[in-house]
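Dear Dr. H.,

I hope your travels went smoothly. While you were away I took the liberty of generating a structure for the chain from your last submission, since the lab meeting agenda had it listed for discussion. I wanted you to have the full record in hand beforehand rather than looking at slides cold. The sequence, exactly as received, is reproduced here:
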Amino acid sequence: PSATPRAADVDRASKLSGVPETLLWTLHNRASEAMRPDGILRDDEAVRIYRSIDYDYVRSFGRADGSHAARSRIFDDVVSAWMARHRGGTVVELACGLETQFSRIDDGEVRWLAVDVPEAMEVRERLLPPTERCRHVARSALDLAWMDEVPRGTRVFVTAQGLLMYFEPADVERLIRAILERFPGVELLFDAIPPWLSRKTMKGWRKTPHYTTPPMPWGVDRDALEPLLRSWSPSVASVGHLPFGYLRGLQGALLPIFARLPGLRRLLPCIVHVRTHG
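The corresponding predicted structure, in token form, is as follows:
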């Protein structure tokens, strides 16, 4: 159910900082796209929340672009297809922020576990209240106690939108190893950035004069991802790379071409879909 934000709830959202503040960046891009007549993402809940928060999105993040909406749309496609094959399964959404994927693709049977750090979850709970099938866990993804909240005996799909790049490489390895070991047959979907972009953020990437992105220590060459993941766990059955489709204009026309050229695709962010044995 939707919630009517109170002034205090909106104030909490507008005062976020660091990595939690990025939930407002992604909300800006998703909601702005959803408000377009030709938008690639229909997301009434995102628009509702976006309009309720007194925050100067353009001052901080600049003009909205379709990048985060395209990412969410791809995640919707992959997770929806999995849900159709595993009715009543469990989706774990790490770093959920103000992502409204559950409301977009809920099939009436899926069990959803939304996980985020306490300061972000405090905002989410007031703007997107939990439900019987969409529960909230106020923990960092690196606090593996969230795994104890996953119902036993169900198939599991774990998503991580805009998360892993903010972790140190050793923490990424520890988290992914733990997920693959804990949940046999799990599927995992996350996005990754290339090393050059990681280095840019580590030097202090000012997206606008008023906003510097948090450091993103984990950057990885997309061609190195599959051998890296297989070295972490023998349970990996396949590693797929999904380009950022759905983008419009010149960017949308060029990205599929770049993604097919080995020299150029290594420079692009990508979405990674991991399937495991079991």
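Two observations you may find useful: Confidence is low (pLDDT under 50) at residues 4-10. Residues 141 and 156 are 16 Å apart (CA to CA).

With kind regards,
E. W.
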